[in-house]
Specification:
The complex is a heterodimer of chains A (297) and B (272). By secondary structure, chain A is α/β, with parallel strands linked by helices. Chain A contains nine helices and eleven strands. Chains A and B meet through loops of A and helix 6 and helix 9 of B.
């Protein structure tokens, strides 16, 4: 019989991150719907997962207005795959009237027409429109086992269209490798992107979050991977994005983009209701603390 | 809030023409040229918004120039880092290649900063406040709330800037830290002016450097480009064996390093 994992008799209370300022508002515009089913996805998105639904423009707008009245700095749009939301261009247009915006996409649905439409939106705004594209390897052999058969080639096509339309996409790679195994990967990533015709490659590496599908691919969080008051001593809370951002989905306002599937992470129905401290009780909170990671650009 | 606290000015002369300079970055030649230009244009008071060191050669040369012109100087993240003998500049970069070049110039500057200079930097105020023509002015290095926060034109919404000014109790915020100058009148009547930097060109393909001049009684800044002997500075940087990438920026006006932090719009305008 397998031995049970020992659980402390009384777990120490989770420390709270203070709420400092609502700088960033995220929108789960495609819900948990995605044309891909990456096996490291921390919210297990897929073509059939409806945990959070696609948000209509009319649903997003009141939150944009509320964000504007609260003096929000910038907006991020993600999913799932945001381009599954047919109203995305209109939503971006609304957002770009208020402030800068970033779209996180796998780029597989970016056609020439779509890239040009985005470029028009960007040109019409005095704020930056950033395109962030997820890719998890420099070859189909390394990328596709994670992101799905054919996804490497499809992403590259979309990336080229974005570059052709004048975007300087930020490539986001999830750190599925260890630096010890592959110390030169960052540099090779840069070279690869230059060769691809992206003249000014920008690369963002995100840590793995051991929740959602990733918990099955490798492992979930150990009971010891939790934050305590001790972790927060002499720690700058600005480092944690939950001190200065919130995530809006079809189901309400959540503390951050990572935890929308986690119990206790929904903080309210409006942004105003969520401007308060949050208990850092999740394994993923430990990852943000340990890596200094932020979902922002 | 930075440890040093705010300096509140109450003396006369603040209603006249004022000049505001962003980071000299050890570019003593550009600093002198800018200060001479500001004086020629009748600036009654000249303010420097911090980051005296980094990037350029022989960091000790900027201190006597600031003193000679009576520049009212406040602390940037670089100055605080040197004063506290920190291991890095605290610029707030997030990308490894940005950090690589930031480290080269910080180590160079740190090694050549004297104890007396560190003590002087340690006494600089973290912010400067005064009233001018009925408006509450606030001078900060990065943003009113953080010394190393980047306020880029294309990445800062009107609402955000107005909120920061309101929360800081200011109608007019002057900042620097990004190295690119811009200003915006905000819908609530407040104004933000990023005065850019005098130590490095503004990534616009021009070798001049920029500062902000406020004519008497006016709150909108005139952004002034100043030429200086940039070739001489480039040669001095080469003699000091500073990275060729830095020298190229002085000679071409295009940034070659610390580019990852730029938002799409600002990055697109540059060459690299």
């Amino acid at each position: 019989m397998p031995r049970a994992v020992p659980i402390p008799l009384r777990a120490p209370a989770a420390p709270k991150v203070p709420f400092l300022s609502l700088d960033t508002v995220w929108f789960q515009v495609a819900g948990t719907l995605c044309n891909l089913s990456c096996n490291h996805c921390f919210i297990s998105c897929s073509p059939t997962r409806h945990a959070h639904e696609i948000m209509a423009r009319a649903e997003v707008r009141p939150y944009l207005d509320e964000a504007a009245s609260l003096g929000v700095k910038d907006f991020y749009f993600t999913g799932g795959e945001p381009f599954l939301n047919r109203e995305l261009p209109a939503i971006l247009e609304d957002a770009l009237r208020i402030g800068p915006a970033t779209v996180l996409t796998n780029a597989t649905l970016i056609t020439r027409a779509r890239a040009e439409e985005l470029a028009k939106l960007a040109a019409a705004s005095r704020y930056s429109l950033e395109a962030r594209v997820s890719l998890d390897g420099l070859t189909p052999e390394t990328n596709d086992p994670i992101r799905g058969e054919g996804s490497f080639d499809a992403t590259l096509l979309g990336l080229r269209e974005l570059a052709r339309a004048g975007f300087l996409p930020i490539i986001t790679a999830t750190q599925t490798w260890s630096d010890a195994d592959d110390p030169g990967l960052r540099e090779r990533f840069h070279g690869f992107l230059s060769d691809l015709g992206l003249p000014r490659p920008r690369l963002k590496i995100l840590p793995l979050f051991r929740i959602g599908r990733e918990a099955d691919r490798t492992r979930g969080y150990a009971p010891t991977e939790r934050l305590t008051e001790q972790h927060m001593r002499d720690f700058d809370p600005w480092t944690l994005q939950c001190s200065s951002s919130r995530m809006v989905t079809s189901r309400g306002v959540y503390v951050c983009p990572i935890l929308i599937d986690s119990p206790g992470a929904r903080m309210g129905a409006t942004l105003r209701e969520t401007l308060r401290a949050f208990p850092l009780a999740h394994g993923a909170c430990h990852t943000c603390w340990a890596t200094g990671a932020s979902c922002r650009n | 809030m930075p440890a040093n606290g705010d300096l509140t000015l109450k003396e006369p002369g603040l209603e006249g023409a004022l000049a505001f300079l962003g980071g000299p970055y050890s570019n003593h030649a550009a600093l002198r040229a800018v200060l001479e230009d500001a004086r020629r244009r009748g600036a009654e008071r000249i303010f420097c918004l911090g980051d005296l060191g980094g990037f350029g050669p022989n960091p000790g040369k900027v201190y006597p120039v600031l003193e000679e012109f009576g520049v009212v100087t406040m602390a940037g993240n670089y100055d605080l880092a040197l004063a506290k003998r920190m291991a890095e500049c605290g610029c707030g970069y997030t990308h490894p290649s940005d950090n690589h070049f930031a480290r080269l110039s910080y180590d160079y500057t740190n090694r050549r900063t004297t104890d007396a200079e560190r003590a002087w930097l340690g006494r600089l105020p973290a912010a400067i406040r005064f009233l001018r023509a009925g408006r509450r002015y606030l001078l900060c290095h990065g943003s009113p709330r953080r010394t190393n926060e980047f306020l880029w034109e294309s990445a800062s919404s009107d609402g955000f800037l107005a909120r920061m000014a309101r929360e800081a109790g200011a109608d007019q915020v002057l900042c620097a830290h990004t190295g690119i100058h811009w200003q915006r009148a905000l819908p609530d009547g407040s104004r933000l002016i990023n005065v850019g930097a005098v130590g490095r060109p503004a990534n616009d393909g021009r070798t001049e450097v920029w500062y902000a001049l406020l004519p008497p009684g006016e709150h909108a800044a005139e952004m002034v480009a100043v030429t200086y002997d940039h070739q001489a500075l480039a040669r001095e940087m080469e003699e000091e064996r500073l990275p060729a990438e830095f020298v190229e920026t002085i000679r071409t006006g295009w940034w070659t390093t610390c580019l990852e932090i730029l938002p799409a719009m600002e990055r697109s305008r540059g060459r690299h």
